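Table S2 (continued). Query chain:
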Amino acid sequence: MTTTKRPPAKRKSAKKTVPEAVPNLFFSRDESWLKFNQRVLEEAQDATNPLLERVKFLAITASNLDEFVEIRVAGILQRIEDGYNQPQAPDEGGLTPQERLDTLSVSVESFVKEQYRCWNEQLLPALKAEKVRVLGWKELSSEARTRALEFYRSEVDPLLTPVTIDPSHPFPRVLNKALCIALLLRYKRKGALGVKTETVLGVVTVPRSLPRLVPLPSVEGGADFILLHELIESQVERMFRGYEVLSKSAFRVTRNSNLYMQEEESRSVLESVRAELHNRRKGDAVRLEIESSADEQIVERLRVNFELDPWQVFRTDGPVNLSRLMNLASEVKRADLKYAEFKPCHYKLLPKSQDLFEDLRSRDVMLHHPFDSYQTVEEFIEAGAIDPAVISMKQTLYRTSKDSPIFRALIEAGQSKDVTVVVELMARFDEDSNIRWARELEDAGVGVYHGIFGLKTHCKLALLVRRDPDGVVRRYAHLGTGNYNPVTARFYTDISLLTSRPELTEAVQSVFNYLTAESESDTYEPLLVAPLTMADGFLKLIDREAEHARAGRPSGIVAKMNGLLERRTIEAFYAASQAGVQIDLIVRGMCSLRPGVKGLSENIRVRSIVGRYLEHSRIFSFVNGDEPVIYCGSADLMARNLHERCEVVFPVSDEAASKRLREDILASYLTDNVKARILQSDGSYVRAPQEGKPCNAQRHFMAMAQGNDETVEAPAASPKVPNKTTK
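Corresponding output:
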C-alpha cells in the first residue's frame, strides 16, 4: 500500500511509566475489537431485549465481523505476503503478523460458532413460539410452495445465470460478499466407455437486488419466510438439465477491501478512488463461508480455487451471511417484538421569533442526539440555504444519506450562494455514494474539494456567513461528533453545538482554509485540530490534571469515546493515574489501556455501554483545579484519528451546556448498571454491579426527552465513581 501522508510533528518523548512487574501494558486492538463484538452478541442473547431487536443485534455482529475480516484480517495477510513478519507494537500484542493471525483465527472461529448457537438454540425457537418462522423448502405447505414458485418464476429466474466449471467455462468472478450456490454435478450421459463422466462444479450467484427473505402465506398474527437461496436451490435441477445434482451448498467469499491508493499527477482523487473501488470488488479472497452440510468435494474445490488455507474456511450451522437477518425485523410487523417507538424532543430554535440567527447571537445551543431531534441541525443548514442574508456556506461531508435534507439544502444554496463542500471520498464503504454526491454538488454549482491527500476529512463542521440586520457580517457554525446523516442520527448518540461565538467560528474558518488550500494557521485555538495540534493538546490536558493532583488541587478526568488505542495518550493516562488523578473512561469499542494495575493504572476505570443506540459521541471532561473544562468532537484517541485524519475537537463553554454534559450525560453513563460492562485488568469485561435500582442511561435520556423521568432511576448529580480527587 502506497499512501502519501503528512508526517506528524516531532514530539517530546513520553515519560516511561512501565512498572517492572507488568510485562504487557497494552491489550491487542484486534482481540479488543472481538471482545466488543462479543458484547454486541450478548445483547442478542439477552432475553430482556425485544425478540426482533435481538435478531438485529445478531445481524450487527455478522456485519461487524465482515468488516473486521475484509479490513483487519486482510491487512495482516497483506503484511505477511509483503514479507513483513517482525514483532509488532505493544498495542498489537507484541506478536508477529503470523502469530497475530494464528491467534485471531482461533478467536474468530469460536465467535462464529457462538453466533450460530445463538441463532439455532435461542432466537429460532423464540421466533417460532411467536409464529415467526424461517422455513426450508421441504417444510412448506402446498399453498406456500405455490406462492414461492410464482415469485421464483416472475422475479428470480430471469436474473439467474447458471455456470458449469470446465475448460471452456472458467470459474466465474465471484464478487466480494456475494452469496452463491455451489453444486456438485455429474453428466447424466455415459462416456465412450459406457461409464459416467467425472463430477464438475456448478455455480449460481444469488441476485443481490432481491430480498434474502421471501415472504410466504402464514397464519393470522404470524409471519413465514423462506431464504432466497433455499428457494433457488429447490429449482437447480431445472437450471442444470442433463446433469445429476449430487450435492449443493450456499457459500460466500470475503475479499480484501482495503483501498491501496497511490498519488498520481495524472489522476484526480475522485478518479483514483473510483478505480480502486473497482479493484476492491475483485480483491484477494480472505475468507470462505459455507454451510456445514456442504460436500467435502465442493469445499475443497472452492478452497483451492480461491487460494485459501484451511483455517480460512468457516462452516456455518445455519444461513450463510447472518447480517441479512436484519431484514427480518423490518419485514415482521410486530410492534410487541420491537423497542417501543421513541419520539425525540424537537428543539425549535428561537421559540419567540422567526430569526434563528438572533437566537444564536444570544446563546449556544447544544443537542444530544437522538434524544434531541436531528431536525434542528437540518433546519440550521436549510435556513442558510434559503435566507438571502446568508452570503456563503461551508460544510464537511463524511457520510450522509439518500434524500438528505442537508444535501438538498446544499444543492439549492449552490444556485445563488458561494457554497463550499469538502467531501471525504474514502469514507469506508460509502465511497460509491460519496462520488455520486460530489458530482451532483459540482453540477449544482457547489465548489467541491476532497481535503488533503493522505488525510481523511473526518471533522463535522458547517459554517454560515451572514450579513445581519445591523449590517455586521457574522459567522454561525455547527460543530458535531456525528456525521451529517439524518438516518444514522436516529440511532447513533452524538453531540451537536450551534454557536456564533467569534473565537469558535473564526477557528472553524481556519480549518476550512486548511482543508481547501492546506493553509496552516498560527493557531486553531480554542479548537484541537488533527493532525496539527490535537495529539499534543490532549497530552497537555491530561498532564495538567496530573500537575493539579500533585499540587493537592481538585483533579479528575471523564472521557467518552469509541476507541482508545494511541500509545502515547495511554501512557499519559498511566502517568496521571500514578499522580493520583481519578480517571473514568467510557470506551464503546477497542481499548488497549489496561486498567486497575497496582502502581500504574489503579486509579483508572474503563466501561463500555452497548444498548439500543450506538454510542458514538466523544466527550472529554477535565476537573482542572475546580475550573472544569469539557470538549466534544469527531476524534477518538486512536493513532489514525490523531495523526492520519483531519479531526476537530471543540470546547463547550456555555455554562448550561457544560453542566448538562458533566452532571447529566456523563454522570448517567457512569451510573449505568444495566448496559454497562467493566473492563478488568486481565482484558475481560464483566457486567456493572447491580447496586441499588437499575439505571439504564439511554432509557433515562429518552425519558428526559419526553418530559417524563419516572420510568427509570434518575442518576445522581455526580457519578458514584469519583471523578474528582484531592491529594
